[in-house]
Amino acid sequence: MSTVTGTEVPIESSAWDAGGELPPGLGPYQLAWRRLRRNKVALAFGGLFLAVVIVCLLAPVYANHIAHSGPNDQHVDTALNQFGLPIGPTWHAKFFLGADNTGRDVAVRLLYGGRNSLQIGAEATIITIVLATLLGIFAGYFRGPADGLISRAFELIWAYPVYLLGIALGVVLAISGLDLGFVHISGNSLQIPAIIIGIIYIPYVGKAIRGQVLGLREREFIDAARQQGLGHFRIMFGEILPNVASTIVVFIPLIMANAILTEAGLSFLGAGVRPPNPSWGTMIGEGIGLLPAAVHTMLVPGIMLVLCVLGINVFGDGLRDALDPRAKIRIEH
Amino acid sequence: MRKYKTPLGTAVVVAMVLAVAACGSSSSKSSASSASSTSSSTAGGSSSSGKSGGTATVVEGTFPQSLDPSIDFTTQGGEVHWLTHLGPYSFAHATGTAGTQIIPSMAQALPTVADGGKTYTFTLRPGLKYSDGTPVKASDLTFAIERDLKLGWSAASFLTSTIAGASDYAKGKAKTISGITTNDASGKTTIHLVMPYGAFLDVLAVPGVSYLPASTPMKPEPNSPPVGFGPYVIKNVQSNVGFDLAINPNYASQAIPGIPAGKMNVNVKVESNTTTEASDVLNNSADVFDWGDTIPPALIQQVSQQKDRYKAYETNKTFYWFLNTTQKPFTSTLARQAVAYAVDRPALARIGSGALVPGCFLLPPQMAGHPTGSCPYGNVNATPDVAKAKQMVQQSGMAGTPVTVWAENRQPRLQWAENYAATLNAIGFKATLKTIADADYFSTIETLKNHPQTGFADWQQDFPNPTDFYQNLVDANAIAPVGNSNYEEVKDPHIQSELAALYPVQGNQINTAASRWQALDSYVTSKAYVVPYGYESSPEFLSNRIDFGKVVFSPLEGNDFSSLQLK
After folding, report:
1. Is B354 on the interface with A (CB under 8 A)?
2. A275 and B435: CB-CB below 8 Å?
């Protein structure tokens, strides 16, 4: 396997000038890790994101042992006043962050909603990265009709505004679900928004990878691989893939952050996570209806969403700087 | 869909109309028969003292099903078509009980009823012209009714089950409706019914039964609604966004007594978030709140303090869960009754900003035929007996059956559905929620092939007769491939035989049949084909710049836009 990266190996000028020994050779990922460790801000925000993930994963513990209320348990009698207005945050374990418009514990739903948002974000990211990588490499490597077909498909998806496409797919699939023949996904499944978001972002990654592959396929090491009689499959996944890996790694947090935001947006608009499943987007949507009297119902999931996305984004920026300081990878809608 | 009720029978209504007519109408400019006119006291909007001019902004929770009157049958649509597409009769433009009176609209007078209630004869007012100047002909009503049937008007069963030949026409077996004969020269119209039908005059007053020029395309025209006759004209339609109601400049000179000309132009815009909708009116950035919506919990206290621009009216609106009797688990009477026992009506009332009065009968309390006894499923104001319901589900053998609850996204309807789904899960079903965009909800569940298992439904009276509820909601004849409002797909022989006996009862004799309606409503409740959970009042909520005292709030059509005027 040959690896060609666009990064430059840093030379410690002081050691060089002093005529001392050069540091032992480091691989690109070791160098990246070294750079990342120096970026304390990125690490701090990475830690913030990790903390959010851990807290959300502990949702059942909080629900069962602290709040003693499930995410969909309604306490209309105790949590709503006669006009249907929910109670605000309390100092009790139950309703610590108040209740929502059907008397459900906001803190419990916040954590379960976070699980759902993170799950959808992660699944969408996997779908995007896997399919975009396959299609991008395939299009860039073979060029010609295959490239034409795949690139036009990318442009077709790209041409639609993300949210309009997401809403259109979300509304249609919410009614009928997704029937792929061998598997049927019901309309209220979390997989539906994950698939929708995953597909929407494919062009944003796929086009970048395709462009990189178009350059790589002309490099000498690919010619050498061909001369050695390697097949297309081995060249694509044995030679080219490792050389686009850093790009892919950089894209992961960016796509994850955007997927979580898109999920929140679609859910807010009623085309993402289906009620009564919680997600930060649905919670914000429900909370909007209670403004200005019950601000907590919108503010709490909003803050959580900001912290989560901020954590991923800043960490992702640090990761990008570490892997490829010259890269200018951005997701632009 | 529409839903409501009124306490007086049509006979009383007719009597009141005649009494009012006897007083004469000083404000009328029409040359039509004074026997048909309504006093200005019944129509606040007809007062000439208001300030004309300006544009009022109306915020609606959803766009009408269609702005084509031959399709629409929603509260939002009726509120518009009531003013843009008049028919032979209309309901008085008046607040309160007076607003349930039937007045002659484009007909000269109330009809002559003969042949034991099977023949209705009336005459079109002479010289009327549509908003585009086309003369109105008597035969235009035949055309409009045929168009209703061809385009699948959501209340078509009112026509197909009553007018001779209408059913054959709807099925394509006839080229015209044999039961309607008209004479364009004299304006005389005669309608023959297949059987006496006590609410037929009400049907002739419902928006949708209106005159349309025969040149109107026989296809849906939602974005460019057909020309009509009325105080307003629909303009600038942006589907699911909004539209304008412009004052019809040709109407004032030929105004119908009791149906005043508009004073302000109206801009209707859709705002699906009820909080935004209410806050827009509260902050005076909009003028009229959708009477079909609920003031949200976050603002109800603030709004209800605005005594000079907010009032809640009892408008006979029933909210209920439909249970599809063709779909498991609701094929089982025991399973359906378990649901009726388990529904937490006090909780639903609280979620609904306290505007919902818990109840368990289909007919609302002020409608003739509302049962006088207590609810057979326990005290509607108390916590439900979930344990008993759970036991009944077990006995029915339907425990664990998957149930899909269909619901709208609007507040508080979504929250009601969430509560309902939680209830179903608590008694042993596996319920999941299926939410549909507000604008598409009713057309989706009204499509028979979807066979929705259970879900949200409501009905507001279209006219003060229990026939309105039963003919649409549980009559087997209402089952249709599209526009099916019998969501339960009920085909109960007892209901059918009772309805056959009750439909002919004239509106003015409705109280004589009240006990039989009560027995039928009790029967339907006991069978739990539908599970009503409450009756909601309707809000009249206006901005500060509108003269609240002058605005008419019809118990049937809501805010009368023709009465809107600046202070």
Report:
1. yes
2. yes
- Give this complex's ipTM: 0.76
Pairing type for strands B102-104 and B89-91 reads antiparallel
Element (H, E) at B145: helix B139-151
pLDDT tens-digit profile of B458-500?
999 999 899 999 998 999 988 888 888 899 999 999 999 999 9
CA angle B377–B383–B388, rounded 5-degree value: 55
Q: Does A85 touch chain B (CB under 8 A)?
A: yes
What span, in angstroms and rounded, lies between the C-alpha atoms of B518 and A69?
42
Determine the longest span between alpha carbons in chain B, in angstroms: 69
Q: Which residue of B has its CA nearest to A76?
A: B347
Domains of chain A: 2-38 (no CATH), 45-332 (1.10.3720.10)
Provide the 3-class DSSP secondary structure of residue B300: helix
CA angle B499, B500, B504 (to 5 degrees): 95
Integer angstrom CA distances of residue A44 from A24, A58, A94, A329, B99: 29, 21, 31, 22, 68
- The contacts of residue A13 (CB under 8 Å, 6+ apart) are none
Q: What angle do CA A267, A269, A271 make, to 5 degrees?
A: 60
What residues of chain B lie within 8 A of the CB of A282, using their CB?
none
Nearest-5° angle of CA A25, CA A26, CA A29?
Answer: 165
pLDDT at A24: 67
Question: What is the helix (H) or strand (E) element at residue B495, kind and residue range?
Answer: helix B493-502
Radius of gyration of chain A (CA): 24
Inter-chain residue contact A77 with B347, CB threshold 8 Å: yes
Listed residue (B454, B323, B335) closest to B398, CA to CA = B335
d(CA B220, CA B151): 7
> What are the structure tokens assigned to B420, written together?
């309902």
Minimal C-alpha gap between A275 and chain B (Å): 7
A-B interface: how many C-beta pairs under 8 angstroms?
99
Mutation pick from B381, B405, B415 vs chain A, by most beta carbons of A within 10 Å, is: B415
Whose tokens are 């307003």? That residue is: B232
Distance, in Å, from the CA atom of B527 to the CA atom of B525, rounded to the nearest integer, reads 5
Q: Which of A83, A171, A175 sits opposite B301 (nearest CB)?
A: A83
Cα(B444)–Cα(B550) distance, integer angstroms: 39
Query: Can you tell me the distance from the alpha carbon of A325 to that of A6, in angstroms, rounded to the nearest whole number?
Result: 9
Distance CA A67, CA B354 (A): 27
Helices (H), B287-426: 297-304, 333-342, 345-351, 386-396, 413-426
From the first residue on, what is the mean pLDDT of each consecutive set of 10 residues in chain B (567 residues)? 37 38 34 32 41 88 91 91 96 93 96 94 96 96 96 87 94 94 97 94 94 95 94 95 95 92 95 88 95 87 92 91 96 96 94 88 93 92 94 95 92 92 95 86 89 94 92 90 90 96 88 94 96 93 95 94 94
The residue assigned the tokens 């600046």 is: B566
Cα–Cα distance measured from residue A174 to residue B435, given in angstroms and rounded to the nearest whole number: 8
Residue where the block lists tokens 């959808």:
A120
Select the residue of A85, A289, A292 nearest B411 (Cβ to Cβ). A289
Determine whether B422 is exposed, middle or buried from the number of CB atoms within 10 Å of its CB (0-12, 13-18, 19+).
buried
- Residue A182's CB: how many other CB atoms inside 10 A? 5
Regarding pTM above 0.90, the answer is: no
Residue type present at position B382: A
Alpha helices in chain A (DSSP H): 13-17, 28-38, 40-57, 59-61, 76-79, 106-142, 144-159, 162-176, 191-200, 202-216, 220-227, 232-234, 241-268, 280-288, 296-323
